């Protein structure tokens, strides 16, 4: 009897909640009504997303969430972070548990098309690399024939590894591990000769070793791993907002707009593109259904792409990543925003 | 047969003083002889075991006690250890020192820790009269009030919200009493539910809003479910699951043995369904898939969802444990209850259940301990329990690469809780043992 009571109460609660809530399916309206952006992030990757000592999420991916919140709600702190494992991230996005994902997710054909997601851009161009102990005396991935390799199961890196060794006609012995943590411990304990994952994670991992000089990251990058934020299919306007929030950060770096000088530049500059970006000219914000100061809010509260990079994962941080492919296109990288026009 | 005393060489004239038993027959020596060195094979085994224990302690104790407590990062720990010992094979307890509050309270605001502490003390106080029957029965009022106090203290807000929920229960009880005079048990139960639901859904919320605007009594800073974590979330989920799953389990176990076809079918179906599905699946459903079934825009507190799922899961197991106790009772007990003219509920309450539950104590506590440890599974749905926090702490550049210290701390906390539960159940078994052995 108790159970039927409970189920009845649950049903009634659900029905009541259903009738009470406005049946508005637009994500933008839902976010505005809630006053909070629900953003799916990695539960803990150094530099990209992790809670700090006070429980506040910080990181390079987190900054994308904060940028969208700043654009939509005018407050970069109005974000509810949902830490998601790689296994559940797409389900959480599809079910509406989160409004967007910024969780170092590789943009692939099947994830985009088959899983019905919209990748709105790339905020970090990564690639799979190898790390070996220096004592192994290996200087190129081509010399890894016969090695034991620590590899996280069920990831794209596992498939890339198999492809790479097959193409190069080499044998290897996989040591399957479940997580980043396990991989690190196994590798340090000498259970495998080689640890392979995204190059950014390798660098972060190596930086935490007791003796980083004893390990080298091999020069070969064997796969393309464009990591970017994504939204679910079915709400193109919302996708546009996330896409252009990211683009605003990228464009701001290109035009030299920083968190320090954005407010001053918002009084008007000689560059019409900056003026449009900051809402001095044109009605770009209104076209997105946002306030015209949306991009200004992003840049003053979060900073431009370069600032976010340097603060979280740049060369002066423990993660210590060089810009490399992630430099602006004007400086030989791939980071490129379509024009604000 | 005549012989004089002269023919005897020696006759003792007085009793000798009682002597202590030979040293080899008392105390540790005897115990050691009997238990450790009672034969060449056992002696060998003892020596080998002692050697293994010595090796283990020699390897771990310096690591544990030589550890560093004052450091800001793993690197600093290693520097200190290198200066002190010349190598780094020692613990870095500094991570516990810096983050212990996070491991225990999650991201609960630091200025509000007193609320969590108070709730914990109240929890112990309200559990005490349930666990020990020597304590004054009046303390049970605290036990009844505790769920509401817990919600108010932990999540904050004004006191009116939880009071309104409590009023719903009171109204349900009143309705039950009134209808019970006229109709059957089932009818009064239905009346109670209807009254409570009507209050909770339609009248209560507006009353609460009104009271909140007029007199925001006992307003505490609100804390979001996302900020709960660490050991605290394990205790909240564990204790709610334990408290709710026992009564639900009893009802399910009785339902499964019922002669009423529909009741029986529902109970069997529920139990077998839940037992056939892993807990992690239920948790995934609660955290990710529930949104598919609820109207868009609905928010349903994540902690509440998890508590519901964990409770459903453990009540199915509990039902089977209690069914085992029921099955172990001799049929004569049921017949005796019938012969006394007791009705179904009375015979269950007075005769069957006290005996069945006593038999099931080990199984029940087993389920409780399992449930408590299963609360760490919430890590996979994005709640930062202690294990989740250990990952989060590692994701911080300062502590990246630290494992054992965190896991040992977490293991210790769980061990203390589970060991206490196990000891209590053994004490209870001894206390309730009425047979002659």
UniProtKB/TrEMBL annotation, chain A:
Domain of life the protein comes from: Bacteria
Keyword field: Signal, Transport
PROSITE patterns: SBP_BACTERIAL_3
InterPro entries reported for this sequence: Bact_solute-bind_prot3 (IPR051455), SBP_3_CS (IPR018313), Solute-binding_3/MltF_N (IPR001638)
One annotated GO biological process: amino acid transport
Domain Solute-binding protein family 3/N-terminal, chain residue ranges per copy: 36-265
PANTHER family per UniProt: AMINO ACID ABC TRANSPORTER PERMEASE, AMINO-ACID ABC TRANSPORTER-BINDING PROTEIN YHDW-RELATED
Protein name: L-glutamine-binding protein /L-glutamate-binding protein /L-aspartate-binding protein /L-asparagine-binding protein
Annotated organism of origin: Celeribacter persicus
Automatic annotation (TrEMBL), chain B:
Membrane topology: Multi-pass membrane protein
Location in the cell: Cell inner membrane; Cell membrane
Gene3D superfamilies xref list: MetI-like
Protein family per UniProt: Belongs to the binding-protein-dependent transport system permease family. HisMQ subfamily.
Molecular-function GO terms, alphabetical: transmembrane transporter activity
Lineage, opening ranks: Bacteria, Pseudomonadati, Pseudomonadota, Alphaproteobacteria, Rhodobacterales
GO cellular component: ATP-binding cassette (ABC) transporter complex
BP term (GO), one: amino acid transport
Limits of the ABC transmembrane type-1 domain: 231-425
Protein name as catalogued: L-glutamine ABC transporter membrane protein /L-glutamate ABC transporter membrane protein /L-aspartate ABC transporter membrane protein /L-asparagine ABC transporter membrane protein
Transmembrane segments: 40-65, 113-132, 161-179, 186-208, 228-254, 266-290, 302-322, 359-382, 402-421
UniProt keywords, alphabetically: Cell membrane, Membrane, Transmembrane, Transmembrane helix, Transport
Species name: Celeribacter persicus
């Amino acid at each position: 009897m108790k159970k039927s009571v409970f189920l009845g109460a649950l049903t009634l609660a659900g029905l009541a909640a259903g009738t009470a809530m406005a049946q508005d399916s637009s994500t933008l309206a839902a976010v505005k009504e809630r006053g909070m952006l629900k953003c799916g992030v990695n539960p803990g990757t150094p530099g990209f997303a992790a809670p700090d000592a006070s429980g506040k999420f910080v990181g390079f991916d987190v900054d994308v969430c904060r940028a969208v919140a700043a654009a939509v709600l005018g407050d970069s702190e109005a974000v509810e972070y949902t830490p998601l494992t790689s296994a559940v991230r797409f389900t959480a996005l599809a079910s509406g548990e989160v409004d967007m994902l910024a969780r170092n997710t590789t943009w692939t054909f099947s994830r985009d098309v088959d899983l019905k997601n919209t990748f709105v851009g790339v905020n970090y161009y990564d690639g799979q690399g190898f790390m070996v102990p220096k004592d192994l005396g290996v200087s190129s991935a081509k010399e890894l024939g016969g090695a034991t390799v620590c590899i996280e199961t069920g990831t794209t890196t596992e498939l890339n590894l198999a492809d790479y060794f097959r193409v190069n006609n080499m044998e290897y012995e996989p040591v399957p591990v479940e997580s980043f943590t396990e991989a690190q411990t196994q590798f340090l304990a000498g259970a495998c000769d080689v640890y392979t994952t995204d190059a950014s994670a390798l660098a972060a991992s190596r930086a935490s070793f007791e003796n980083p000089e004893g390990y080298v990251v091999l020069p070969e990058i064997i796969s393309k791993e464009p990591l970017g934020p994504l939204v679910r299919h079915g709400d193109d306007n919302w996708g546009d907002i996330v896409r252009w929030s990211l683009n605003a950060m990228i464009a701001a770096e290109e035009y030299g707009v920083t968190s320090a000088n954005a407010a001053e530049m918002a009084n008007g500059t000689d560059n019409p593109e900056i003026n449009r970006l900051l809402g001095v000219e044109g009605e770009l914000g209104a076209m997105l259904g946002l306030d015209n100061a949306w991009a200004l809010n992003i840049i003053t509260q979060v900073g431009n792409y370069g600032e976010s990079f340097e603060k979280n994962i740049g060369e002066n941080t423990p993660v210590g990543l060089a810009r490399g492919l992630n430099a602006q296109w004007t400086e030989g990288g791939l980071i490129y925003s379509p024009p604000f026009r | 047969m005549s012989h004089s005393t002269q023919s005897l060489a020696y006759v003792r004239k007085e009793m000798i003083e009682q002597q202590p038993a030979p040293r080899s027959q008392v105390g540790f020596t005897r115990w050691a002889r009997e238990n450790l060195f009672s034969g060449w094979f056992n002696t060998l085994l003892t020596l080998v075991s002692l050697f293994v224990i010595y090796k283990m302690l020699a390897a771990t104790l310096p690591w544990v006690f030589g550890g560093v407590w004052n450091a800001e990062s793993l690197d600093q720990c290693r520097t200190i250890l290198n200066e002190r010992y010349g190598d780094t094979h020692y613990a870095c307890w500094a991570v516990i020192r810096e983050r212990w509050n996070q491991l225990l309270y999650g991201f609960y605001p630091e200025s509000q820790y007193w609320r969590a502490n108070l709730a914990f003390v109240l929890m112990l106080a309200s559990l005490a009269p349930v666990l020990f029957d020597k304590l004054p029965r009046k303390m049970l009022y605290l036990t009844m009030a505790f769920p509401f106090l817990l919600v108010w203290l932990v999540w904050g807000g004004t006191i009116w919200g939880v009071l309104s929920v409590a009023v719903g229960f009171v109204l349900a009880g009143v309705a039950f009493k009134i209808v019970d005079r006229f109709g059957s048990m089932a009818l009064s139960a239905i009346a109670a539910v209807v009254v409570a639901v009507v209050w909770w859904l339609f009248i209560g919320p507006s009353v609460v809003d009104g009271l909140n605007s007029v007199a925001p009594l006992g307003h505490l800073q609100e804390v979001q479910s996302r900020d709960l974590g660490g050991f605290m979330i394990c205790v909240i989920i564990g204790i709610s699951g334990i408290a709710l799953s026992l009564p639900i389990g009893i009802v399910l176990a009785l339902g499964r043995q019922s002669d009423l076809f529909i009741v029986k079918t529902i109970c069997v179906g529920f139990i077998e369904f839940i037992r056939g599905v892993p807990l992690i699946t239920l948790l995934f459903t609660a955290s990710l898939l529930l949104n598919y079934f609820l109207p868009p825009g609905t928010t349903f507190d994540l902690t509440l969802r998890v508590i519901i799922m964990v409770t459903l899961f453990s009540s199915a197991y509990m039902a089977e444990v209690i069914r085992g106790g029921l099955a172990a009772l001799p049929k004569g007990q049921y017949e005796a209850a019938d012969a006394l003219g007791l009705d179904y509920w009375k015979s269950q309450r007075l005769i069957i259940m006290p005996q069945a539950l006593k038999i099931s104590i080990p199984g029940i506590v087993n389920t409780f301990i399992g449930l408590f440890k299963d609360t760490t599974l919430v890590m996979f749905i994005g709640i930062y329990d202690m294990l989740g926090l250990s990952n989060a702490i590692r994701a911080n550049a300062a502590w990246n690469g630290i494992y054992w210290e965190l896991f040992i701390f977490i293991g210790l906390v769980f061990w203390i809780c589970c060991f206490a539960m196990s000891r209590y159940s053994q004490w209870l078994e001894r206390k309730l043992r009425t047979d002659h052995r």
